[in-house]
Write a structure and sequence with these properties.
about 130 residues, mainly alpha, Arc Repressor Mutant, subunit A, Diphtheria Toxin Repressor, domain 2, 2 domains, about 70% helix
Amino acid sequence: MDSNRSKEMYLETIYILENSHDHAHVADIAQRLGITKPSVTKAMNRLKEEGLINKETYGHITLTEKGEAMAQKVYHKHCTIARFLEKSLGLSPDEAATNACRMEHVITDKMMQAIEAYLKNEETGAKTENGRT
């Protein structure tokens, strides 16, 4: 696992799998990310050493509190960026998600705050225009 981006991708994937299945497995992670099981196993060992995951001997992988906090932050970025791309640029949900996946790892905090402010303004403006306040 060479980069922070890679770590974030693994954590986000485990987070998504954990939310749908209560845990993840190496095979599930490999399939979802389109990489080999040995690559995932190597990365899981590093994440375990960093205290970000728990890896049971029988294969269940879960996030530690620290790992879950990191994963939630990345997932929040992903969802927020995807919403922004759909609303501001009119991208399809699939296109927005693909681009959000790439952008979530490199976006600055300042840009993320600007996106969140834009979305908040859009939602507030829409409520006001519809007569709701």
